[in-house]
Amino acid sequence: MTGPAVEKRIIVKNLKIFPPLALAPMVGLSHTAMRSLVQEQGGVGLLFTEMLAARSLPDENERHSPLLIRSATEKPLFYQLFLNEIDQVEPAVRQLLKFDAHGIDLNLGCPAPKLRKQGAGCYLVRDHKHLSAVVARLRKATDLPLSAKIRLGDQLDTVALASLCRMLEGEGIDLLTVHGRLHGEKFCRKPRWDWIGKVKDMVSIPVLANGGIFSVEDARICLRMSQADGLMVGRGAAWRPWLLADIGREIYGIPDSCTRVGREQVYFRFIELLTERFPRERRLGRLKQFTHYFAGTYTFGHHLATAVQTSDSVEQAAGRAKEFFDQPSC
Ligand SMILES: Cc1cc2nc3c(=O)[nH]c(=O)nc-3n(C[C@H](O)[C@H](O)[C@H](O)COP(=O)(O)O)c2cc1C
After folding, report:
1. Dihedral sign, CA of 16, 22, 26, 28?
2. Nearest CA to ligand 1 atom 23
3. How far is CA 18 from CA 8, 183, 288, 304, in A?
4. How many C-beta neighbours within 10 Å does residue 111 have?
């Protein structure tokens, strides 16, 4: 990278995003405990919630719904919506304003069956006319920064992709995240960072590149290939919650914001955050999902993953994790 780090900040409306590194929206992972864990490690300029159904939001309670629980220190925080109906827009936005959202993200990339049934996520992209009306309504409903998260499309098609991205920009989207895969592509396929570069040339709003960033080197290559304004990291941050701090330090010159601690302490800090933020019955599932990724940094991590997966309580899982960490060869 060239140029002083400060030039790399992203500005959307009045919001400065620096470093230009975001933690991705991920169902079951990007909740308050994970967001705080990653933020404590440092290097995060933008946080996202996991996707939220616009149609249910008006009936949900910020203090009780596990998807909405958050702490005041998580900022800036964009709430990600999935929706299909134009009429769902305003009630959802009104609710997000009450929650003091710093921005709103529209999920236009997720191909999950749950979203297919509702015509949301990547299925909303199939009808540009309808999508453009949805985005226009969103823009009318709020002055908050608006972002959208897309994949590359049903197939590689520069014209279709340009038409989508320019329409989103034209309707008032301020920031675009591009996950460099087609709608039908699995996560094991290498993301097409060069195609994110094509999007970068199609629009003048900032672009975040997403997909397959698991190391500082991946981040460097992705930025070089895509010329994106910043990065969004998903699974890599569950695997190594300090990854954004590493990228922030090595690429953007951000000094470490906390004393680096061992992996074991990071894991127990996550349990502490889960315990602080969630009612008892909401903790174990989240610990299992996080451990699935976190265990991947250990040579014998499958032992840790299995020990936690088969636990009946967070206390049992924590005890088994401690036994695992105490083994010299873990
Ligand atoms: C468990 C899981 C849940 C996800 N949930 C969402 C979601 O709620 N909204 C969304 O836009 N993308 C979601 N994604 C996709 C991620 O945001 C991201 O685009 C994808 O994981 C690729 O980035 P990565 O390689 O850095 O993980 C999810 C991915 C995973 C693995």
Report:
1. negative
2. 211
3. 8, 29, 31, 35
4. 16
Scan for tokens 């592509």, then name that residue: 185
| Choice from 21, 23, 27, 35 to test ligand 1 binding pocket (greatest atom count within 8 A of CB) | 27
Question: For ligand 1, atom 14, which residue shows the shortest CA distance?
Answer: 26
Between the CA of 211 and the centroid of ligand 1 the distance, in Å, is 8
Q: pLDDT (tens digit, 9 = 90+) per residue, 229-249?
A: 999 999 999 999 999 999 999
- End-to-end CA distance of the chain: give it in Å, rounded: 36
Instruction: Kindly list the domain boundaries of the chain, sorted by start residue.
Output: 5-252, 263-326
**CATH number of the 5-252 domain:** 3.20.20.70
> What are the pocket residues of ligand 1 if the criterion is a CB atom closer than 6 Å to any ligand atom?
24-29, 50-51, 80, 107, 109-110, 149, 179, 210-213, 233-236
Q: Which of 235, 243, 291 to mutate to test the pocket of ligand 1 (most atoms within 8 A of CB)?
A: 235
Classified as helix, coil or strand, 53 is strand
Q: What is the spatial distance between Cα 162 and Cα 167, in angstroms, rounded to a whole number?
A: 8
Q: Which two tokens stand for residue 107?
A: 């999920």
pTM: 0.97
> Which positions ≥6 away from 46 have C-beta within 8 Å?
17, 20, 21, 22, 23, 76, 78
DSSP-assigned beta bridge partners for residue 23? 47, 233
Question: Which residues of the chain are modeled with pLDDT < 50?
Answer: 1-2
The tens digit of pLDDT for each residue in 81-117 reads 999 999 999 999 999 999 999 999 999 999 999 999 9
